[in-house]
TrEMBL record:
Biological process terms in GO annotation: pectin catabolic process
Names of the cofactor(s): Ca(2+)
Subcellular location: Secreted
UniProt-listed Enzyme Commission number(s): 4.2.2.2
Biological or metabolic pathway of the protein: Glycan metabolism; pectin degradation; 2-dehydro-3-deoxy-D-gluconate from pectin: step 2/5
Protein known as: pectate lyase
Family as reported in the entry's similarity comment: Belongs to the polysaccharide lyase 1 family.
Top EC category: lyase
């Protein structure tokens, strides 16, 4: 039997149309399911279905559970029916959904109060130029959004700061912010970051921030930070995937692919369990950075020249990001109680293509075991493919039953 090329092409087109139709049908069905829920209680399917997926240090986040359900109907920056209005008028628990696909060009950062869920499931929702500020807020969930800074503003896609607690950041697509894509800092703690796609950015994620004069000036405030990062996809970034100091961190089952400068960084007595991550990089590839990354210092930054050696920097040497400043200010730490290195428990990580291992365990007995059970996958090429497919603002596979 002879099969023509035209028949094959028509078959592929038909298959693609069927897939797109099924995806659209799935999104529509989700948007309609639970639409009659006036209150975001446990009996509402879109509430219970999401909360069942919580894991990690942010697993206690309840968001807008028990509150009113509010639907965003306008893609304007502000005014009736907008996301900004829905956030500004939250006086108690509030579960925010969207009435349609929409792209919202923001003129300033959105502030997210406590006891709020921003739930983009069921529609394709994109925020442009600015993102979300979570300041001093407790119980916040943000899921299924795309946030693209377009390198236009010195801001962050998600900024968790000022003693915020119980925050869950899930299934987001974050890219192109001139500052950072994600911060967790200034006394914030109990945060989970899951299934997020970070891409096309320079300084991606900062977990706790430091001062240049006294690196440990905020140690007592920030050592209590606890953050879980799992099943995230870092693609075509430059550095800080993440960069972490002081606090307690659980970094597992993430995929780092084609960083231009370095992958991860840990320092200044952070306590980090780094397990089951996948590092993949090649030394000979095209640079996909923009002409330059803008910086607050006014420097036009480009890292293309580092690509050839990038696979050997899956991470910086333990403490490497802060060793020079630590030694320069050594007189402040004469008591010997401070260390520029992090306490690390490193195990079961996978290195693909040209990527090389750098991180090694250091005083792992100082790294606390996670006080929760969690869904852990052995690091394999199959897991890498799953993260590529499902991290980001995607519907993803049907969730399993995470343990708590």
């Amino acid at each position: 039997m002879t099969i023509s090329v035209g028949s094959i092409v028509r078959g592929l087109r038909l298959g693609l149309l069927v897939c797109l139709a099924l995806a659209a049908s799935s999104r529509t069905a989700f948007a309609e399911s639970g639409s009659a829920c006036a209150k975001a209680d446990a009996a509402c399917p879109f509430v219970s279905g999401l909360l069942a997926q919580r894991e990690g240090y942010g697993r206690a986040a309840t968001g807008g559970e028990g509150g009113e359900v509010v639907t965003v109907t306008s893609p304007a920056d502000a005014g009736p029916g907008t996301l900004r209005e829905a956030l500004a008028h939250a006086r108690g628990p509030r579960w925010i959904r969207f009435g349609s696909d929409m792209t919202i060009t923001l003129l300033s950062q959105l502030r997210v109060p406590g006891n709020v869920t921003i739930d983009g499931r069921g529609h394709r929702v994109t925020l442009l130029d600015y993102g979300l500020g979570i300041y001093g807020s407790n119980n916040v969930i943000v899921t299924h959004l795309t946030i693209d800074g377009r390198l236009r503003t010195f801001s962050q896609a998600i900024n968790v700061a000022n003693h915020s607690t119980n925050v869950w950041i899930d299934h987001l697509d974050l890219s192109r912010f001139a500052d950072r894509l994600l911060n967790v800092k200034n006394g914030s703690t109990d945060v989970t970051v899951s299934w997020v796609k970070f891409h096309d950015d320079d300084k991606v994620m900062l977990l706790n921030n430091i001062t240049s004069k006294d690196l440990f000036a905020n140690y007592d405030r920030d050592k209590g930070a606890r953050v879980t990062v799992h099943h995230c996809y870092f693609l075509d970034t430059v550095q800080r995937n993440p960069r972490a100091q002081f606090g307690t961190f659980h970094i597992f089952n993430n995929l780092l692919e084609n960083w231009d400068f370095y992958g991860m960084s840990f320092s200044l007595q952070a306590r980090a369990l780094v397990e089951g991550n996948i590092f993949s990089n090649v030394s000979k590839r095209d640079c996909v950075e923009p002409e330059f990354f803008p910086t607050v210092e006014g420097v036009k930054a480009s890292y293309c020249k580092y690509i050839a050696d990038a696979p050997s920097r899956s991470a910086l040497p333990n403490g490497g990001s802060d060793q020079r400043n630590f030694e320069r200010t050594a007189k402040l730490y004469a008591g010997g109680e401070r260390d520029y290195r992090a306490y690390l428990s490193v195990k079961d990580n996978l290195y693909l293509r040209d990527a090389k291992a750098v991180l090694q365990s250091y005083l792992p007995e100082k790294v606390p075991a996670p006080p929760y059970c969690y869904t852990y996958d052995a690091p394999t090429p199959k897991l890498a493919d799953e993260i590529r497919r499902f991290a980001g603002n995607t519907d993803g596979p049907a969730p399993g039953t995470p343990c708590h």
